[in-house]
Write a structure and sequence with these properties.
mainly beta, 3 helices, 21 strands
Length: 302
Amino acid sequence: MCLLICMGLCACHTPQTDEDTQDNIPNVVSPVKVTPVRAGAIADEITLNAVATYLKKNNLKANVNGYLIGVQAALGLPVKAGQPLFIIQTKEARAVDALADSLPPHLLPYRKNVVIRASQNGFVSQLFHQTGDYVTDGEPLCEISDQNSFAFLLQVPFEWVDKIHTGQTCTLILPDSSHIQARIAYQMPLVDPAAQTQQYVLHLASPKWLPENLIARAILTIRTFPHAQLVPKSAILTNEEQNHFWVMRVVNDSLAVKTPVQLGIVNDTTVQILSPSFQTSDRVVTEGNYGLPDTAHIRIIP
């Protein structure tokens, strides 16, 4: 009798299977934020350095032998065409001036000094002589940078030369964050031996007085996709090797399904999706997506 009672008690306490245990575990619901996959335009852009320069620099030269008795040029001084910069007294004029009281009147015109004037608008970029120097005919007195020859030299790595063409427009961002529109005028037929970059001349859309050697960032558009699938950058997930990408696509407002994607253009905030093709009603998780498993239960929050 006791044996039968014990067997009955054991039959009442049948152990639970693994399936029964899993069924009793509640599904974890993750709060997430979502956004729709939108269609829009995106551009492939590159950023390069551009250096301000004056392409034409002319040397103002002495046209007689003599002494500099007046120098009105100064380094960095803006000048206009015809502005007097140097006064030269010839050796003959100095000799006549010393004997002016005893010379006949017909020799007095030799006392006149020679005035050297600026040949163009610009600024004095180099100054070679000061007052009191003796100069010879043809000797440079100063260098004047032509104001009308101002341009930016765009430094392009040689492997990107096929992406740049004459007439292409770009935006220059100066160190003070101001923006200037520019156009590629022509290509320089030389390459920097150390950096292996080729120079392109950029002309500004509107004249602007800027200091030489100023470095700006030039943003050039290589290609544009007017009807691209776009998602926020935060929606893209990847593996450790960053060779496989996916998004968590929302299904029925309650599930997030892992969907592999092929990326196109990537900028600071937006990513182009080349494949697969999403519907206009599709949404992807942008916050709370990190670490979500495939087919995860979610709760959409505002």
